[in-house]
Amino acid sequence: MADEKHVQKGTDDQQITLTDDQGNEELYQVLFTFDSEDYGKSYVLLYPSAAQEDEEVEIQAYSFKPDQAGDAASGDLYPIEDDDEWDMVEEVLNTFLADSDDDDATD
């Protein structure tokens, strides 16, 4: 069975604060979220909200349990530890970025 994904592009008000091992907090913007039937999980992809538009950034990816509104909350984020799961997330991200590039080319 194919892995069905529902990608929802982030909006300006979807932000999550992540805390690193040293207790430093950084605000992240939600790039998009999607669901995977194969893994039975929801995923969120984030980038630093302080990043400039043309700046290359490292995108963070987590699985999450949606709240009642279907959104990700920082307390509900889980690391992705399975290699096959990472491959699937990277494939979705690459498709999203390719579609975004196509949209930019037609603007």
TrEMBL record:
Region (Disordered) residue spans: 1-22
InterPro entries in UniProt: UPF0473
HAMAP family from the UniProt entry: UPF0473
Pfam entry (one): DUF1292
Family: Belongs to the UPF0473 family.
Domain of life: Bacteria
Record's protein name: UPF0473 protein FD02_GL000395
Composition-biased stretches (Basic and acidic residues): 1-12
